[in-house]
TrEMBL record:
<protein>
    <recommendedName>
        <fullName>Guanylate cyclase domain-containing protein</fullName>
    </recommendedName>
</protein>
<dbReference type="InterPro" id="IPR001054">
    <property type="entry name" value="A/G_cyclase"/>
</dbReference>
<feature type="compositionally biased region" description="Gly residues">
    <location>
        <begin position="213"/>
        <end position="227"/>
    </location>
</feature>
<dbReference type="InterPro" id="IPR029787">
    <property type="entry name" value="Nucleotide_cyclase"/>
</dbReference>
<feature type="domain" description="Guanylate cyclase">
    <location>
        <begin position="84"/>
        <end position="127"/>
    </location>
</feature>
<feature type="region of interest" description="Disordered">
    <location>
        <begin position="187"/>
        <end position="283"/>
    </location>
</feature>
<feature type="compositionally biased region" description="Low complexity">
    <location>
        <begin position="240"/>
        <end position="270"/>
    </location>
</feature>
<feature type="compositionally biased region" description="Pro residues">
    <location>
        <begin position="230"/>
        <end position="239"/>
    </location>
</feature>
Length: 321
């Protein structure tokens, strides 16, 4: 089948947490509850069975929705109903069913054996990522974690809607196998998911940071990806050597330690050994520290660790640099 037959679809990948510790009977009950929760969630948005391609994954489910199903319903009413179904099941069950859900959208091909496409791969990786697993470990009282792709967050979640709460999502970088994506994490009824402290940093231009509040300064918050957060911080100051040029300073002034001489004498006019082409002996200065600029024999900015090596006296007799 040609890849031209691929259709843009919303992909859902669900996986049960800790299913490997269950016995056979408990696994059977877990699977029945998982399929029941998915079916109830589909019914809540008016999605019939024939509009969903669903594949069994043992302790999980892979699904792709008909292109005509509005994705806002899936990140809103569908997820809320799935959450409520899990709560109801777990209230009367000794074996809690806790799900991680990965969601993405993009071209998907059904080759007769199953679903194929990067949208499928990414949804599965978001669900199974180390960040997702550790986040659920840090939220033992929660029954559902939702991880959506950056595209899905920016184009669907961030727009809001019924039962859609973009302000409760947080972003983190997901790196697993060949996947390297920014993803957005959400746990229903929590103001923010407890992302692990050692998670990979999210990519530039995809995180909206607050200036402070309940989450502390610099917290990653919802609200949609933004194009950068200003220029990158400057490089830490490096030791300068005499006559070595550094990056341009304020107003185009070279940030460097210059060989001293008569005011306005260009560096190019100076000869070796600290003597300019006119025969004037000058003083060399090595400045270690934060030098904003050195111009016309004046340092502009904070200077530490200055070492002066004096040659024969300059014509004015003071050896000033």
């Amino acid at each position: 089948m040609s890849s031209a037959a691929a259709v843009n679809r919303l992909v859902v990948f669900g996986d049960a947490c800790g299913s490997g510790r269950l016995g056979l009977d408990a696994k059977r009950r877990m699977r029945a509850a998982m399929y029941g929760a998915f079916a109830e969630a589909y019914a809540s948005v008016g999605v019939e069975v024939d509009r969903v391609h669903q594949e069994d994954r043992g302790d999980g489910i892979l699904a792709a929705l008909d292109p005509g199903v509005p994705p806002t319903l899936m990140v809103g009413t569908w997820l809320d109903t799935l959450f409520q179904s899990l709560r109801e099941h777990n209230a009367g069950s000794a074996d809690r069913l806790r799900l991680r859900i990965g969601m993405n959208a993009g071209p998907v091909l059904d080759d007769g054996r199953g679903l194929v496409g990067r949208a499928v791969d990414v949804a599965a990786r978001l669900c199974d990522s180390p960040v997702a697993r550790r986040t659920m470990e840090r939220a033992p009282g929660s029954d559902l974690l939702v991880v959506v792709s950056d595209w899905l967050y920016a184009n669907v979640v961030a727009e809001g809607g019924r039962y859609v709460e973009p302000e409760t999502y947080r972003s983190a970088r997901v790196r697993i196998k060949e996947t390297d994506e920014t993803a957005w994490f959400h746990i229903p009824r929590l103001p923010a998911p407890p992302l692990p402290d050692d998670r990979p940093a999210s990519g530039p231009g995809t995180v909206h940071r607050s200036t402070g509040g309940a989450d502390g300064p610099g917290t990653e918050t919802g609200g949609g990806p933004v194009q950068g957060d200003g220029p990158p911080p400057p490089d830490p100051p490096q030791p300068r050597t005499t006559g070595t040029k550094g990056p341009a300073g304020p107003a185009g002034t070279a940030d460097r330690a210059r060989t001293a001489g008569p005011a306005g004498t260009p560096d190019a006019a100076r000869g070796a050994g600290g003597t300019d082409t006119a025969g004037t002996t000058v003083t060399h200065i090595n400045a270690q520290g934060d030098v904003a600029a050195f111009e016309n024999n004046v340092f502009h900015g904070q200077v530490t660790g200055i070492r002066k090596s004096r040659g024969p006296a300059a014509p004015d007799g003071d050896g000033a640099a």
